[in-house]
Amino acid sequence: MNAPAQDRPRTLVAGVGNIFLGDDGFGVETVRALAGRPLPDGVEVADIGIRGVHLAYRLLDGYDTLVLVDATARGGEPGTLYLIEPDPGGGTGTPVDSGGGTGTPVDAGGLGALDGHGMSPDAVLALLHTLCAGTGTEPPRRVLVVGCEPACVEEGIGLSPRVAAAVPAAARMITDLVHQSAPAPTGHTGGAHP
Fold first, then answer.
1. Under 8 Å CB-to-CB from 29, ≥6 apart: which residues?
2. Pairing verdict, β 94-97 and 104-105
3. Which is higher by pLDDT, 116 or 172?
4. Calpha distance 52→58 (Å, rounded)
5. pLDDT at residue 54 in the model
6. Any bridge partners for residue 82, and if so which?
7. Least-confidence region, from 40-44, 114-118, 178-182
8. Taking the model in full, what pTM does it have?
9. pLDDT tens for residues 131-148?
10. Element of type H or E holding 167
11. 171 neighbors 144 (Cβ within 8 angstroms)
12. Crossing angle of helices 26-34 and 161-181, rounded to 10°
């Protein structure tokens, strides 16, 4: 028998960024691209935009995994995708080159902060930990950042060509991530097959 819906692991894929600042809208555009893709039960996709405080409060609802999708300036070539799994000690994760969607690892030397806009992912997570301490809830056990090296984060609507070209590869990366972390069916009910 399958686990009750409320007992299944929950994942939130959150697109963050400001669509009025060029490539900073990468996260929002990527979650829009995910809208038509089949995702496992328990996976929610949300366009958070610049509402970082809203995201922190939403996470109090109990998610096992958070996948943040954002423009992430780390010094690579514009359009480079990064898969980052931050750790409490400040680890930096492994960048992935999106050229052609191959997912080729690239040199991770000299990396800076995860994000440059107002409520950065690390600020959201810091707020979340404060909220959890005050409410007795638990933060997500796993946090991943799917980031893309921006070319331009100045005023203007629309992604640069290299960042726009990385959106489909980022959507594939996220789809693969959530399918890999989805629990396997544990049996069948009423003759139905999982």
1. 15, 19, 159, 164, 167
2. antiparallel
3. 172
4. 10
5. 77
6. 95, 147
7. 114-118
8. 0.74
9. 887 888 888 888 899 999
10. helix 161-181
11. no
12. 50
